[in-house]
Design a protein that fits this description.
The chain contains 7 helices and 4 strands, in the order ααααββαββαα. It is mainly alpha-helical. A hairpin with a 4-residue loop joins strand 1 and strand 2. Helix 2 packs antiparallel against helix 6 and helix 2 packs across helix 7. 17% of the residues are buried.
């Protein structure tokens, strides 16, 4: 999330900003729809092994396949997937208020899957063997496509145009 802090030394500017905030009103229904869509976006990423976001995930290394005895990429216990798609998961992080949404996971290793680590930092495929040291190839969990971004902006725009609509009415629009 981007957060800007500052001070304004102009009562006229402050009054205009207060008016703008009043016009924005309560965007909680739109934020709730964005949270729902976020969870679906992540579920789609896992179901397609990254292809839904446009960057298919690197295949598992032979040693990992042998240790896991097959199985889906990034799914061993299911904790990572659950933490991003199940609001009831103990590792799911979600906070919605009238103007913002914070959503994600409290699992520290998610970041290394998103960006890669060691020899795999920023790499979407496994480098040729032999590899030196440890590494994890980048397997983006969170990919905000232009279509999805437009969808989320649409939720907010619809809410601004019709502030009396709830989440179910807004969701029917998209």
């Amino acid at each position: 999330m981007i957060r800007i802090n500052g001070s304004i030394n102009s009562q006229a500017v402050e009054d205009r900003l207060d008016l703008l905030l009043a016009q924005l009103g309560d965007l909680t229904p739109a934020m709730g729809l964005i949270a729902q869509d976020f969870r679906q976006m992540v579920a789609d990423q896992f179901a397609s092994a990254g292809a839904a976001g446009g960057t298919p995930w690197a295949a598992l290394a032979p040693a990992t396949l042998k240790r896991k005895r097959g199985g889906a990429i990034l799914v061993a216990s299911g904790a990572l997937l659950d933490s991003l798609t199940d609001p009831g998961s103990p590792d799911h992080m979600e906070s919605i208020d009238n103007l913002s949404l914070e959503i994600g996971t409290d699992l520290g290793y998610a970041e290394f899957q998103q960006t890669g680590a060691g020899w795999g930092f920023g790499q979407t495929s496994l480098p040729p063997a032999p590899r030196q040291g440890h590494g994890v190839p980048m397997r983006p969990l969170l990919v905000l496509t232009a279509d999805r971004q437009d969808r989320w902006v649409g939720f907010v725009m619809q809410q601004l145009a019709s502030p009396s609509l709830g989440a179910s009415e807004l969701g029917a629009q998209f």
